[in-house]
Design brief:
- It is a single chain.
- The chain has 1014 residues and is α+β, with helices and mostly antiparallel strands.
- 17% of the residues lie in helices and 38% in strands.
- The chain has a five-stranded mixed sheet, with no helix packed on it. It has a five-stranded mixed sheet with strand order 62-68-67-64-65, with no helix packed on it. Strands 69-70-71-73-72 form a five-stranded mixed sheet, with helices on one face.
- A hairpin with a 4-residue loop joins strand 39 and strand 40.
- Helix 3 runs antiparallel to helix 4.
- The longest helix is centred in the C-terminal third of the chain and has 61 residues.
- The chain is flat, with a radius of gyration of 53 Å.
- The N and C termini lie far apart (144 Å).
Length: 1014
């Protein structure tokens, strides 16, 4: 009997192990960690919450941490911290009151409320009705805040109580229920979907209350002994369907019990020999239960998964403190050594032939399908052909050769093509080989050895007529008909300079006799099997490829898709003679493209060296998949992709083959809304960096000063899992005319933008290409520096006009004063000095009448000098008199002078006024010098000429003024005087910037050219 019991026990254990192993193999957990190495301020995380902006909050023993996916913001008691909180030792749960975006937390057994938008803190104490220490914080389905308090340290011995208290929504907590305290502070409250409250106590077990505070029942379930005292404390959990779960704690019973509503008895739900402390129901209806350091998942079918080993592989810890599922369906596990993030997704990919070895394992090349529906592939690392039949059974194709006993007859084979009857397959390495799939017999064709190279790409395809095309260079390119056993060179007479080696990939075009050839480093060739090269495309051709190394080709109705090494995916449109490139900047998982398979009309599956991409050719968007999504490995191999007759896809890589049906994968997930987090700027004026939190400050526009040398804007898309592979695009409208790829960088910096109005736009997608639900938009105003602003320039203009006006007015006043002075001087000279000289001349003449002969000559000389002085004084008075500034005044004075001096000598003087503006004013210096030149000329006529006529002419021509004085004298009189008259004229002309010339043809002519018109 005892032996039978042991056998039965072992069978049960084996059954459970098999059950868990089977489920585990189907549900590979995707786990990431978040620890102090990532910026978490303290390793012991007690509680988790998420605010309305999608940011995570973690309560630790050293404060609160807000996490946006990239950065932490810490609230603690450090007085130098801008996010200062008085108490930072979190001792209970933290809860978000979503309707107000306020965070409730318990620190050092005190209750606080943080307004997330303003960072203001409200504390609640005895004056707010709080009775003693706060032990537990709870938020019910109506978002009402509850606490459990304990007055143990204030009450007299034996009279301590515990209280359930409810926040009144204003500023006070009221007592909902109270019970005598046990020897320990253990307590727990929870509500069901009807908002009935369940209170776990030490002395009475679980007490049930309705929402009004009426006690409905008491229930003592399994008790346990704690330091010699029996306790009835228990924890409950209610799922979305209002089913009740109980976590017993005892010597013989632990795990989770579920209440049978029919029998009103608890039944086993999770049978594990550990007490459970935390529970959560996820979005799929599965339950998560945490013991001290164990984590279990129970799915909707009752299958149990133990995640403990998976967690321990990523991080050491000794206690699980909390479970939380965020708005993006990600499970968070808080421990005493950091946080776990667990993403459980329905397995979309199957993994074939994968080893447990880290890194490279079973590497694969060619994949093909037999007529029985089996999938066979070459395991390159083991030089084997392995397969899986239609029932999912794995097998190996035995290989042997009658000619060559090599243990690796398919070494370096990469491409495989079936015979018409699908009973055999052809491949090439340093031989053309044929493999019988029934018995593994390999037949070799040594006649083609010289046309193959084991170190080359070894491309091989079957043409429409069943012929094979192979060869490592154009000169070796061979068409072989297996049925007739005939072969021919495609280019039998190819010149050496036209030969291209290292052929990598062949694709038979839909165009008759045309084959596309991808090369190692010479680009893309379009060849005609009749022996001509139709076209060559490379990085220097028009159109140009992105890279000259071609790994894979695919042709649809009107496009040729080209997978390159390092250049991404090229789309060649022959009808338009253009090539469009798609790379990582557009969302492709990697720029090394090794496989292309079509799906439906508008999609391409693309394997790369770093992930698998689904390309929507119509929307030009990518959805990417990686190991965490279920791939066997992120790196795939070229010539290792296949679509079978049932529409199932296979991609071989560095550790196994990824198999999948595309239909369920096409369903995209909407990512959480993106948010701006902060912006910072550096001011050269103050030599400081200013940082602003955009999620708190409701700014409608960011103002950038002209002294800000640069500014940086940051954002986040709070999906939190694999966030390092998020992809972002930005466009600064008003400055940029297209979207720029930022990779996984969640910030952008601009330096010294020109002044103006801009709008920064940001869009993002997760690692799978799922786009965010919104596009961020942030207006920016870059202000102009003050000396370039319109108001400053206006003030400067006004100041200049004012200055000019002041100077002009000053000059005007000076001129007025000068003119007044001149008028006064001329009047005084004319009236006073003129009268004196006239009187002197008259007195002298009167004395002359009565004087003797000797004195009469002297008096006559004095009289003449006085008369001459009067004439010169009148000339001077006239020249400085501002009332005589017109050209007409000058002409009249010239006429007067001619009458006085020439008329008595019977010399005719004519003044030709020409096209003059008689009322134009002349500068006083010009008027003065012209008059004195004229007077000198008249004097010269009288003294040195026998002229009988003098002609004076004024003329304007091309903006210049001309004055000509001409006489008809034919001979010069000899005179012993100084002869300085002409020099004086030149000197006077220079003073007014005039040009003066003298001519002696047909008389004597003086020509004066002025730099302005009369």
């Amino acid at each position: 009997m005892k032996r039978f019991s042991c056998t039965l026990y072992l069978l049960c254990v084996l059954f459970l192990l098999l059950k868990y192993t089977s489920v585990s193999s189907q549900n590979v957990p995707q786990i990431e960690t978040l620890t102090t190495e990532h910026g978490l301020t303290f390793r012991d995380v007690r509680s988790i919450a998420q605010d309305t902006m999608g940011f995570m909050w973690f309560g630790t023993q050293q404060g609160l941490n807000q996490y946006d996916g990239y950065n932490f913001k810490v609230y603690n008691s450090n007085k130098d911290n801008p996010h200062f909180i008085e108490e930072d030792k979190i001792t209970a749960q933290i809860k978000i009151e979503a309707s107000k975006n306020e965070l409730w937390y318990v620190a050092s057994e005190q209750i606080f409320k943080l307004n997330i938008e303003t960072d203001s803190i409200s504390s609640y104490s005895e004056k707010n009705g709080v009775k003693g220490s706060v032990l537990f914080l709870y938020k019910d389905v109506k978002e009402q805040i509850w606490i459990v308090t304990d007055d143990y340290w204030k009450a007299s011995s034996g009279k301590a109580k515990q209280y359930i208290q409810k926040f009144d929504g204003k500023d006070a907590f009221t007592v909902f229920a109270e019970e005598k305290r046990g020897s320990r502070e253990f307590t727990h409250i929870i509500s069901d979907n009807n908002n009935n409250m369940y209170w776990g106590t030490i002395l009475k077990g679980v007490i049930k209350y309705n929402e009004d505070g009426k006690q409905l029942s008491e229930r003592k379930l399994v008790s346990f002994i704690w330091y010699g005292e029996e306790m009835f404390y228990a924890q409950f959990y209610f799922d979305k369907a209002n089913n009740q779960y109980y976590f017993p704690k005892g010597k013989k019973i632990n795990g989770v019990l579920k209440l049978n509503k029919t029998t009103n008895k608890f039944e086993d739900f999770l049978d594990v020999p550990l007490p459970i402390y935390h529970a959560l129901e996820d979005h799929q209806g599965s339950f998560w239960f945490a013991a001290e350091e164990y984590l279990y998942r129970v799915d909707t079918e009752g299958n149990v998964q133990d995640f403990t080993k998976d967690l321990k592989k990523h991080l050491d810890y000794s206690k699980i403190n909390a479970l939380f599922q965020d708005s993006n369906k990600l499970l968070w596990v808080a421990t005493d050594n950091g946080l776990f993030k667990i993403r459980i997704k329905k397995q979309l990919f199957s993994q074939l032939f994968k080893t447990e070895k880290e890194g490279w394992g079973n590497t694969f090349r060619g994949i093909f399908e037999t007529k029985e529906g089996s999938i066979i592939a070459m395991c390159e690392s083991q030089y084997k052909l392995v397969g899986m039949d239609a029932l999912g059974k794995e097998f190996e194709v035995p290989l042997h050769s009658a000619i060559n006993n090599s243990a690796t007859p398919i070494a370096a084979s990469r491409s495989f093509t079936l015979t018409k009857d699908s009973t055999a397959v052809y491949s090439v390495n340093d031989n053309l080989i044929k493999i019988n799939l029934d018995n593994g017999l390999i037949t070799m064709f040594p006649e083609f050895n010289s046309r193959l190279n084991i170190t080359s790409g070894n491309p091989l395809i079957a043409l429409k007529d069943g012929s094979l095309l192979f060869g490592y260079s154009l000169s070796k390119l061979t068409v072989f008909n297996p049925e007739s056993n005939e072969s021919r060179l495609v280019f039998p007479n190819l010149k050496m300079e036209d030969n291209i080696s290292e052929l990598r990939f062949f694709l038979a075009s839909k165009e008759e006799n045309i084959v596309w050839v991808g090369t190692q480093n010479k680009g893309l060739l379009k060849i005609n099997l009749k022996g001509t090269i139709e076209a060559i495309y490379n990085t220097k051709s028009v159109p140009a490829l992105s890279n000259n190394t071609i790994l894979v080709l695919f042709e649809d109705d009107n496009k040729l898709w080209i997978g390159t090494y390092g250049g991404g995916l090229d789309c060649f449109i022959p009808s338009e003679n253009r090539i469009i490139n798609f790379n990582k900047e557009q969302g492709l998982s990697d720029n090394n493209v090794v496989g292309i398979l079509p799906y439906q009309e508008d999609f391409l599956w693309i394997s790369t060296y770093d992930g698998l991409s689904l390309f929507d050719t119509k929307a030009t968007s990518f959805q990417n998949f990686y190991v965490e999504d279920g791939l066997t490995h992120n790196e795939f191999n070229y010539t290792s992709f296949f679509k079978d007759s049932k529409g199932i896809y296979y991609f071989g890589g560095m550790n196994g083959i990824t198999k999948f049906n595309p239909k369920p994968i096409l369903k995209k997930v909407t990512m959480p809304a993106m948010r701006f987090t902060n912006y910072s700027k550096y001011s050269s004026k103050t030599n400081e960096i200013f940082k602003y939190e955009l999620e708190k400050q409701k700014v409608s526009v960011i103002d950038i000063s002209p002294y800000d040398q640069y500014f940086t804007v940051s954002w986040t898309m709070p999906n939190f899992f694999n966030i390092s592979k998020n992809q972002y695009y930005t466009k600064l409208e008003g400055f940029e005319d297209r979207w720029y790829f930022q990779g996984n960088s969640s910030s952008i910096r601009y330096n010294k933008l020109p002044s103006g109005e801009y709008t920064l736009k940001v869009r993002g997608a997760d690692s799978n290409g799922n786009k965010s639900s919104n596009v961020l938009s942030l207006p920016l105003t870059v202000h102009q520096i003050f000396y370039k602003t319109w108001w400053f320039l206006g003030l400067v203009f006004i100041a200049i006009i004012g200055f000019i006006y002041s100077v002009f007015n000053y000059r005007l006043q000076q001129l007025k004063a000068m003119n007044q002075l001149r008028t006064k001087i001329s009047s005084d000279l004319h009236d006073d000095v003129g009268s004196l000289l006239s009187g002197l001349a008259m007195q002298t003449e009167m004395l002359e009448m009565n004087a003797n002969e000797k004195d009469r000559l002297k008096l006559k000389r004095i009289s003449k000098i006085s008369r001459d002085a009067i004439v010169k004084m009148r000339d001077l008075v006239w020249s400085i008199d501002n009332r005589r500034e017109r050209i007409l005044d000058l002409i009249e004075r010239m006429e007067e002078l001619a009458d006085e001096m020439l008329l008595p000598k019977e010399i005719v003087c004519k003044i030709n006024k020409g096209n003059l503006n008689h009322h134009k004013k002349l500068p006083i210096a010009v008027k003065q010098q012209l008059y004195f030149i004229y007077k000198e000329a008249i004097t010269n006529v009288l003294r040195h000429s026998n002229a009988t006529k003098v002609l004076v002419s004024f003329k304007n021509n091309s903006g210049l003024g001309y004055l000509k004085i001409k006489d008809n004298g034919t001979e010069s009189k000899k005179d012993s005087k100084t002869g300085m008259g002409l020099e004086n004229m030149k000197m006077r002309a220079e003073k007014i910037n005039a040009e003066i010339n003298f001519y002696t043809i047909n008389g004597f002519t003086i020509l004066i050219k002025l730099p302005f018109a009369f």
